[in-house]
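Handout for the seminar on molecular recognition.
Each group receives one record of this type.
Step one: identify the two inputs.
Step two: read the structure output and locate the region that could contact uridine-5'-diphosphate.
Step three: write two sentences on what you found, then compare them with the reference statements printed after the record.
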Amino acid sequence: MLVSVVVPCMNEEESIPHLVARLEKVVAPYGKRAEILLVDDGSTDGTWAEIEAARKTCSQLRGLRLSANRGHQVALTAGLEAAQGERIFMLDADLQDPPELLGDMMGMMDRGYDVVYGRRSERQGETIFKRATAWVFYRALNAMSDVDIPRDTGDFRLVSRKALDAVLSMPERARFVRGMFAWAGFRQIGIEYCRAPRAMGETKYPLRKMIRFATDAMTAFSTRPLKFATRMSFASLGFSALMMIYVLRSLILYQTAPGWASVVLAISLFSGVQLLTLGILGEYIGRLYIEAKNRPLYFVSEDTRGAETVPLRKLA
Ligand code: UDP
Ligand code: MG
Protein backbone atom coordinates (compact mmCIF):
# COMPACT_ATOMS: atom_id res chain seq x y z
CA MET A 1 0.00 0.00 0.00
CA LEU A 2 1.45 3.33 -0.99
CA VAL A 3 -0.95 5.98 0.30
CA SER A 4 -3.58 5.94 3.02
CA VAL A 5 -5.97 8.84 3.32
CA VAL A 6 -7.39 9.22 6.82
CA VAL A 7 -10.46 11.34 7.50
CA PRO A 8 -12.25 11.66 10.86
CA CYS A 9 -15.95 12.37 10.37
CA MET A 10 -18.55 13.35 12.90
CA ASN A 11 -22.04 14.18 11.65
CA GLU A 12 -20.76 14.85 8.16
CA GLU A 13 -23.50 13.12 6.16
CA GLU A 14 -23.74 15.99 3.66
CA SER A 15 -20.01 16.18 3.14
CA ILE A 16 -19.24 12.47 2.59
CA PRO A 17 -20.38 12.17 -1.05
CA HIS A 18 -18.44 15.31 -2.06
CA LEU A 19 -15.45 14.24 -0.05
CA VAL A 20 -15.34 10.75 -1.55
CA ALA A 21 -15.79 12.10 -5.08
CA ARG A 22 -12.88 14.49 -4.69
CA LEU A 23 -10.67 11.97 -2.92
CA GLU A 24 -11.31 9.33 -5.59
CA LYS A 25 -9.97 11.70 -8.24
CA VAL A 26 -6.95 12.51 -6.15
CA VAL A 27 -5.97 8.92 -5.44
CA ALA A 28 -6.84 7.65 -8.93
CA PRO A 29 -3.18 7.66 -10.06
CA TYR A 30 -2.29 5.21 -7.30
CA GLY A 31 -5.10 2.76 -8.10
CA LYS A 32 -5.14 -0.25 -5.83
CA ARG A 33 -2.14 1.07 -3.95
CA ALA A 34 -4.26 3.68 -2.22
CA GLU A 35 -6.86 3.39 0.50
CA ILE A 36 -9.33 5.91 1.86
CA LEU A 37 -10.13 5.44 5.52
CA LEU A 38 -13.18 7.22 6.85
CA VAL A 39 -13.53 7.10 10.61
CA ASP A 40 -17.03 7.69 11.89
CA ASP A 41 -16.59 9.29 15.28
CA GLY A 42 -19.87 8.23 16.87
CA SER A 43 -22.06 10.26 14.53
CA THR A 44 -25.72 10.62 15.34
CA ASP A 45 -26.80 11.35 11.78
CA GLY A 46 -26.54 9.29 8.61
CA THR A 47 -22.77 9.46 8.32
CA TRP A 48 -22.23 5.72 8.64
CA ALA A 49 -24.95 4.98 6.08
CA GLU A 50 -23.25 7.43 3.70
CA ILE A 51 -19.91 5.73 4.22
CA GLU A 52 -21.42 2.32 3.50
CA ALA A 53 -23.15 3.68 0.42
CA ALA A 54 -19.94 5.28 -0.86
CA ARG A 55 -18.14 2.01 -0.36
CA LYS A 56 -20.34 0.33 -2.95
CA THR A 57 -18.92 2.52 -5.69
CA CYS A 58 -15.42 3.06 -4.38
CA SER A 59 -13.38 -0.07 -3.83
CA GLN A 60 -10.51 1.79 -2.18
CA LEU A 61 -12.74 2.97 0.63
CA ARG A 62 -12.75 1.51 4.09
CA GLY A 63 -15.03 2.65 6.90
CA LEU A 64 -14.31 2.42 10.57
CA ARG A 65 -16.99 3.17 13.09
CA LEU A 66 -16.11 4.08 16.65
CA SER A 67 -18.37 2.88 19.43
CA ALA A 68 -18.99 6.43 20.67
CA ASN A 69 -17.91 9.99 20.05
CA ARG A 70 -14.32 10.27 21.19
CA GLY A 71 -13.36 13.58 19.65
CA HIS A 72 -11.51 14.63 16.55
CA GLN A 73 -8.00 13.78 17.73
CA VAL A 74 -8.90 10.29 18.92
CA ALA A 75 -10.88 9.53 15.77
CA LEU A 76 -7.88 10.63 13.77
CA THR A 77 -5.63 8.39 15.87
CA ALA A 78 -7.96 5.45 15.25
CA GLY A 79 -7.62 6.01 11.51
CA LEU A 80 -3.86 6.38 11.75
CA GLU A 81 -3.57 3.11 13.64
CA ALA A 82 -5.62 1.30 11.02
CA ALA A 83 -3.81 2.86 8.04
CA GLN A 84 -1.54 0.53 6.13
CA GLY A 85 0.10 2.88 3.68
CA GLU A 86 3.73 3.86 3.41
CA ARG A 87 2.58 7.44 3.32
CA ILE A 88 -0.38 8.74 5.22
CA PHE A 89 -2.43 11.75 4.22
CA MET A 90 -4.84 13.28 6.72
CA LEU A 91 -7.50 15.88 6.25
CA ASP A 92 -10.85 17.07 7.55
CA ALA A 93 -14.11 15.79 6.16
CA ASP A 94 -15.50 19.25 5.47
CA LEU A 95 -13.18 19.89 2.50
CA GLN A 96 -11.63 22.93 4.13
CA ASP A 97 -8.29 21.41 3.24
CA PRO A 98 -7.93 20.82 -0.50
CA PRO A 99 -7.25 17.09 -1.15
CA GLU A 100 -5.71 18.10 -4.49
CA LEU A 101 -2.60 19.17 -2.60
CA LEU A 102 -1.67 15.49 -2.20
CA GLY A 103 0.30 15.51 -5.46
CA ASP A 104 2.47 18.44 -4.34
CA MET A 105 2.96 16.92 -0.92
CA MET A 106 4.01 13.60 -2.45
CA GLY A 107 6.52 15.50 -4.56
CA MET A 108 8.00 17.13 -1.47
CA MET A 109 8.18 13.83 0.31
CA ASP A 110 10.07 12.36 -2.65
CA ARG A 111 12.72 14.94 -1.86
CA GLY A 112 13.31 13.29 1.49
CA TYR A 113 10.88 14.89 3.92
CA ASP A 114 9.00 12.83 6.49
CA VAL A 115 6.29 15.32 7.32
CA VAL A 116 4.77 17.79 4.88
CA TYR A 117 2.24 19.89 6.73
CA GLY A 118 -0.18 22.42 5.34
CA ARG A 119 0.17 25.94 6.63
CA ARG A 120 -2.89 28.15 6.35
CA SER A 121 -1.90 31.32 4.62
CA GLU A 122 -5.47 32.48 4.61
CA ARG A 123 -8.65 31.33 6.27
CA GLN A 124 -11.77 32.00 4.32
CA GLY A 125 -15.29 31.93 5.64
CA GLU A 126 -14.30 31.51 9.27
CA THR A 127 -15.59 33.85 11.92
CA ILE A 128 -13.37 36.58 13.34
CA PHE A 129 -13.76 34.82 16.68
CA LYS A 130 -12.40 31.52 15.34
CA ARG A 131 -9.49 33.20 13.62
CA ALA A 132 -8.64 35.34 16.64
CA THR A 133 -8.78 32.43 19.09
CA ALA A 134 -6.70 30.26 16.74
CA TRP A 135 -4.15 33.05 16.38
CA VAL A 136 -3.82 33.49 20.15
CA PHE A 137 -3.79 29.73 20.72
CA TYR A 138 -0.84 28.96 18.43
CA ARG A 139 1.19 31.86 19.81
CA ALA A 140 0.43 31.07 23.47
CA LEU A 141 1.17 27.40 22.92
CA ASN A 142 4.52 28.16 21.37
CA ALA A 143 5.44 30.64 24.07
CA MET A 144 4.69 28.03 26.72
CA SER A 145 5.96 24.79 25.25
CA ASP A 146 9.50 23.68 24.62
CA VAL A 147 8.50 22.02 21.36
CA ASP A 148 8.35 24.23 18.34
CA ILE A 149 4.87 23.54 17.02
CA PRO A 150 4.41 25.12 13.60
CA ARG A 151 1.98 28.02 13.77
CA ASP A 152 -1.29 28.06 11.86
CA THR A 153 -1.12 24.44 10.84
CA GLY A 154 -3.81 21.88 11.40
CA ASP A 155 -3.69 18.15 11.06
CA PHE A 156 -3.77 18.50 7.29
CA ARG A 157 -0.52 16.80 6.29
CA LEU A 158 1.25 13.94 4.60
CA VAL A 159 3.50 11.87 6.81
CA SER A 160 5.85 8.98 6.21
CA ARG A 161 5.45 5.59 7.81
CA LYS A 162 8.56 6.29 9.86
CA ALA A 163 7.13 9.49 11.37
CA LEU A 164 3.72 7.90 11.90
CA ASP A 165 5.13 4.89 13.71
CA ALA A 166 7.04 7.24 15.99
CA VAL A 167 3.85 9.09 16.89
CA LEU A 168 1.85 5.90 17.33
CA SER A 169 4.44 4.61 19.74
CA MET A 170 3.60 7.46 22.11
CA PRO A 171 1.20 6.00 24.63
CA GLU A 172 -0.51 9.11 25.98
CA ARG A 173 -4.28 9.43 26.09
CA ALA A 174 -4.25 13.18 25.53
CA ARG A 175 -3.76 13.16 21.78
CA PHE A 176 -2.65 16.43 20.27
CA VAL A 177 -1.63 14.94 16.97
CA ARG A 178 0.02 17.94 15.31
CA GLY A 179 2.10 18.60 18.43
CA MET A 180 3.11 14.96 18.65
CA PHE A 181 4.43 15.07 15.09
CA ALA A 182 6.34 18.24 15.92
CA TRP A 183 7.84 16.59 18.98
CA ALA A 184 8.73 13.42 17.08
CA GLY A 185 11.04 15.42 14.85
CA PHE A 186 12.28 14.01 11.51
CA ARG A 187 12.54 16.20 8.47
CA GLN A 188 9.56 18.48 8.25
CA ILE A 189 8.46 21.13 5.85
CA GLY A 190 5.38 23.30 5.45
CA ILE A 191 3.41 24.06 2.34
CA GLU A 192 1.19 27.11 2.18
CA TYR A 193 -2.42 26.79 1.22
CA CYS A 194 -5.56 28.76 1.41
CA ARG A 195 -8.11 27.31 3.81
CA ALA A 196 -11.49 27.22 2.14
CA PRO A 197 -14.77 27.73 3.95
CA ARG A 198 -16.57 24.62 5.16
CA ALA A 199 -18.26 23.00 2.14
CA MET A 200 -21.33 21.67 3.95
CA GLY A 201 -22.89 21.64 7.38
CA GLU A 202 -21.47 23.52 10.30
CA THR A 203 -18.46 23.35 12.55
CA LYS A 204 -18.19 20.36 14.88
CA TYR A 205 -15.97 22.37 17.20
CA PRO A 206 -18.17 24.39 19.53
CA LEU A 207 -16.48 26.60 22.11
CA ARG A 208 -16.60 23.82 24.70
CA LYS A 209 -14.58 21.47 22.48
CA MET A 210 -12.21 24.26 21.49
CA ILE A 211 -11.39 24.99 25.13
CA ARG A 212 -10.84 21.31 25.81
CA PHE A 213 -8.62 20.99 22.79
CA ALA A 214 -6.57 24.02 23.85
CA THR A 215 -6.14 22.92 27.47
CA ASP A 216 -5.22 19.41 26.34
CA ALA A 217 -2.60 20.83 24.03
CA MET A 218 -1.17 23.17 26.64
CA THR A 219 -1.01 20.63 29.45
CA ALA A 220 0.36 17.95 27.14
CA PHE A 221 3.16 20.13 25.82
CA SER A 222 4.10 22.36 28.68
CA THR A 223 4.51 22.31 32.44
CA ARG A 224 5.00 26.03 32.50
CA PRO A 225 1.56 26.81 33.98
CA LEU A 226 2.68 24.86 37.05
CA LYS A 227 5.51 27.28 37.60
CA PHE A 228 2.94 30.04 37.73
CA ALA A 229 2.33 29.28 41.43
CA THR A 230 5.97 29.89 42.30
CA ARG A 231 6.04 33.13 40.34
CA MET A 232 2.86 34.37 41.92
CA SER A 233 4.20 33.58 45.38
CA PHE A 234 7.20 35.83 44.76
CA ALA A 235 4.93 38.57 43.48
CA SER A 236 2.69 38.39 46.53
CA LEU A 237 5.68 38.28 48.90
CA GLY A 238 6.99 41.46 47.29
CA PHE A 239 3.61 43.09 47.63
CA SER A 240 3.35 42.07 51.30
CA ALA A 241 6.80 43.51 52.00
CA LEU A 242 5.71 46.89 50.64
CA MET A 243 2.54 46.74 52.73
CA MET A 244 4.57 45.92 55.81
CA ILE A 245 6.72 49.01 55.39
CA TYR A 246 3.62 51.13 55.15
CA VAL A 247 1.97 49.54 58.18
CA LEU A 248 5.13 49.76 60.34
CA ARG A 249 5.56 53.39 59.42
CA SER A 250 1.97 54.13 60.51
CA LEU A 251 2.54 52.29 63.79
CA ILE A 252 5.71 54.21 64.55
CA LEU A 253 4.01 57.49 63.78
CA TYR A 254 0.99 56.49 65.94
CA GLN A 255 -1.33 56.62 62.94
CA THR A 256 -3.90 53.94 62.34
CA ALA A 257 -3.76 52.60 58.77
CA PRO A 258 -7.23 53.41 57.39
CA GLY A 259 -9.61 51.40 55.37
CA TRP A 260 -11.17 47.96 55.16
CA ALA A 261 -11.22 48.33 51.36
CA SER A 262 -7.54 47.50 51.08
CA VAL A 263 -8.03 44.44 53.31
CA VAL A 264 -10.95 43.15 51.27
CA LEU A 265 -9.05 43.82 48.08
CA ALA A 266 -5.99 41.95 49.30
CA ILE A 267 -8.04 38.99 50.47
CA SER A 268 -9.98 38.67 47.24
CA LEU A 269 -6.87 39.15 45.12
CA PHE A 270 -4.87 36.50 46.90
CA SER A 271 -7.69 34.02 47.21
CA GLY A 272 -8.23 34.45 43.48
CA VAL A 273 -4.60 33.67 42.82
CA GLN A 274 -4.75 30.67 45.13
CA LEU A 275 -7.84 29.26 43.48
CA LEU A 276 -6.29 29.79 40.09
CA THR A 277 -3.16 27.87 41.02
CA LEU A 278 -5.30 25.12 42.55
CA GLY A 279 -7.27 24.97 39.33
CA ILE A 280 -4.10 24.65 37.27
CA LEU A 281 -2.87 21.89 39.57
CA GLY A 282 -6.25 20.21 39.19
CA GLU A 283 -5.98 20.26 35.40
CA TYR A 284 -2.72 18.37 35.55
CA ILE A 285 -3.83 15.98 38.27
CA GLY A 286 -7.02 15.14 36.37
CA ARG A 287 -4.96 14.33 33.33
CA LEU A 288 -2.53 12.24 35.35
CA TYR A 289 -5.50 10.28 36.62
CA ILE A 290 -6.79 9.70 33.11
CA GLU A 291 -3.35 8.57 31.94
CA ALA A 292 -3.01 6.29 34.96
CA LYS A 293 -6.27 4.51 34.20
CA ASN A 294 -4.71 3.51 30.91
CA ARG A 295 -8.00 2.79 29.22
CA PRO A 296 -8.11 2.05 25.51
CA LEU A 297 -8.60 5.25 23.56
CA TYR A 298 -11.53 3.91 21.56
CA PHE A 299 -13.40 0.82 20.46
CA VAL A 300 -14.21 -0.01 16.89
CA SER A 301 -17.80 -1.14 16.59
CA GLU A 302 -17.80 -1.69 12.84
CA ASP A 303 -15.11 -2.05 10.24
CA THR A 304 -16.05 -2.53 6.63
CA ARG A 305 -13.03 -4.76 6.27
CA GLY A 306 -13.97 -7.22 8.99
CA ALA A 307 -16.02 -7.59 12.11
CA GLU A 308 -13.46 -6.32 14.54
CA THR A 309 -14.82 -5.21 17.87
CA VAL A 310 -11.62 -5.42 19.88
CA PRO A 311 -9.66 -2.24 20.42
CA LEU A 312 -7.03 -1.91 17.74
CA ARG A 313 -4.80 -0.25 20.26
CA LYS A 314 -2.49 -2.79 21.76
CA LEU A 315 -1.87 -2.16 25.40
CA ALA A 316 1.46 -2.91 26.95
N1 UDP B 1 -14.64 15.79 14.15
C1 UDP B 1 -14.66 14.53 14.74
N2 UDP B 1 -15.11 14.40 16.02
C2 UDP B 1 -15.51 15.48 16.77
C3 UDP B 1 -15.47 16.76 16.18
C4 UDP B 1 -15.01 16.88 14.88
O1 UDP B 1 -14.29 13.54 14.10
O2 UDP B 1 -15.91 15.28 17.92
C5 UDP B 1 -14.13 15.93 12.76
C6 UDP B 1 -15.06 16.64 11.82
O3 UDP B 1 -15.98 15.75 11.24
C7 UDP B 1 -14.09 17.20 10.79
C8 UDP B 1 -12.86 17.49 11.62
O4 UDP B 1 -12.98 16.73 12.81
O5 UDP B 1 -13.75 16.25 9.81
C9 UDP B 1 -12.70 18.97 11.94
O6 UDP B 1 -13.90 19.47 12.49
P1 UDP B 1 -14.51 20.86 12.03
O7 UDP B 1 -14.31 21.04 10.57
O8 UDP B 1 -15.92 20.94 12.52
O9 UDP B 1 -13.62 21.88 12.84
P2 UDP B 1 -13.23 23.37 12.38
O10 UDP B 1 -12.70 23.28 10.98
O11 UDP B 1 -14.47 24.16 12.47
O12 UDP B 1 -12.19 23.76 13.36
MG1 MG C 1 -13.56 22.41 9.45
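Reference statements: The longest strand covers residues 115-123. The beta strands are 3-9, 34-40, 61-66, 87-90, 115-123, 153-160, 188-195, 300-303.
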